């Protein structure tokens, strides 16, 4: 697994500048526009996951979702499902393990899970976290913080 380097930090900062206004605007969209956005993003993730062995084994591709309501019909994936399978079956084949950023789940179920991010997903994770901070208190990306996790 690869650590974040200076280039990653610069890219995250650039993403914050360009994507943060859009990320902040999403909760203010009309219900229809928000559902359309959710559908496009979920469908894109669903299509990407077609190449992941785990999801094929769990029956995710036994039907094609045609609406947001169909997502409730997808099989539930539990942490135990992930832990019971080899890492290679849980990753998209286009990813190289050495290029991914690894984090850990909290272990609240009694067992921690390694969570792997490609850089684009990690940038979105950071942006979503910043949006959540701003919903809770006055926070700007240049504020200093200490984040203690697991």
Counting copies of identical and different chains, the oligomeric state is: single chain
Main sheet, how many strands, which sense, barrel?
Answer: 2 strands, antiparallel
Give the helix/strand class. Answer: mainly alpha
Q: DSSP strand (E) fraction?
A: 5-15%
Count of DSSP helices?
6
Shape: globular
Report mean pLDDT, rounded to a whole number: 83
User: Helix and strand string, N-terminal first?
Assistant: HHHHHEEH
Could you give the count of β-strands?
2
The radius of gyration is 17 Å
Model regions low in confidence, pLDDT < 50 over at least 5 residues: none
**Measured distance between first and last alpha carbons:** 18 Å
Helix content: 40-55%
Name the strands of the widest sheet in spatial order: 1-2
Task: Summarize the topology.
Blueprint (H helix, E strand, L loop, with lengths): L5 H20 L5 H19 L3 H5 L21 H5 L3 H4 L10 E4 L9 E4 L1 H18 L14
Q: What are the salient characteristics of this protein?
A:
150 residues, 5% strand
Q: How is this structure best described in words?
A:
The protein has a two-stranded antiparallel ribbon with strand order 1-2. With 150 residues, it is mainly alpha-helical. Helices cover 47% and strands 5% of the residues. The two termini are 18 Å apart. The longest helix is centred in the N-terminal third of the chain and has 20 residues, at 6-25. The chain contains six helices and two strands, in the order αααααββα. The relative contact order is 0.15. Helix 1 crosses helix 6 (119-136).
């Amino acid at each position: 697994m690869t650590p974040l380097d200076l280039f990653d930090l610069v890219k995250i900062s650039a993403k914050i500048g360009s994507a943060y206004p859009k990320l902040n605007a999403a909760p203010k969209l009309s219900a229809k526009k928000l559902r359309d956005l959710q559908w496009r993003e979920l469908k894109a993730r669903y299509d990407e996951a077609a190449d992941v062995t785990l999801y094929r084994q769990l029956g995710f591709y036994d039907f094609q979702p045609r609406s947001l309501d169909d997502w409730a019909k997808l099989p539930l994936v539990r942490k135990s499902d992930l832990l019971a399978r080899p890492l290679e079956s849980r990753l998209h084949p286009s990813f190289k393990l050495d290029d991914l950023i690894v984090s850990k789940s909290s272990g609240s179920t009694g067992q921690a899970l390694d969570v792997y991010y490609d850089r684009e997903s990690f940038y979105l994770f950071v942006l979503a976290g910043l949006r959540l901070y701003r919903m809770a208190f006055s926070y700007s990306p240049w504020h200093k913080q200490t984040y203690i996790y697991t």
